# Entry
Amino acid sequence: MNNILVIGNPTVDFVKGKSFGPGGPVTYVANSLSKLGEKKIHILTSFGEDFSIENFTEKSNLFRIESEFTNKFNFFFKSEIREIHANSYGKKLKITDLKLNSTPEIIYISPVLNEFSIFETKLLMKKFKKSFFIGMPQGWIRKLKTDVVRIDFSDIKKIPFFDILFFSEEEILNTSINIEQFRKLAKILVITRGDKGSSIYSGENSFEFPSKRVKSLSTIGAGDIFATVFSHTFFHSKNISFAAQLANEIAAKSTMYRGLKSINSDVFKIAMKRK
# Structure
């Protein structure tokens, strides 16, 4: 087991105005790590009374900054593209909010709306130079236009260097930034492509991994589950192919369930069998 830190705010999700349930990368990541057998999971987060602490499997090392509101996301799907509306926002998080007695071996940075900034991340990297940093930086490339979330890569040059960095094809689809610029941001760059699988870049090498075909019910959270399984498996195995294939299979199975129900023993059974 590892000493792990996960940073980011959860969400209360809606689909076309109808309640979907609790979510957010920090929730999917922390709960997936628990299913992978991790017990020492520290979580830095902020949410209101409308998000239950019981949504986290491991709560003993939860650093919660109380907030009047929780991030609320309303998803609208147009073909394979989703539009996100944001209705409320949790409090910002800072490195000074952390009260750790030891150095985390693995750190996940997973903001949803810049609640943990690039600046704070750089401070954290300076403090924990030996930690393995995993970036899920959707919150840094999301900008609000009224209540609609737009993708904006204007701060891309400010993003620090990660051990593993994740983007989705949906996010980078309409940007003029080429893949070589993204590759400079991490030792390993992962582009998730939904039901088309994933593209992974490491050094001079690139890899394509197809997804497993299943009867999908919901894709919300699947990218976060993929990122968690891939990074955790790679950290232990140092094998990109093995990590990607396991992550693809688990993420695909997770889409057969809605919301946090996607993180269950049946979905993660294959990972526990391979331990």
In short: The chain has a mean pLDDT of 93. The two ends are 12 Å apart (CA to CA). The helical segments are 25-35, 118-127, 169-172, 179-183, 222-237, 240-254, 265-273. The CA atoms of residues 13 and 131 lie 31 Å apart.
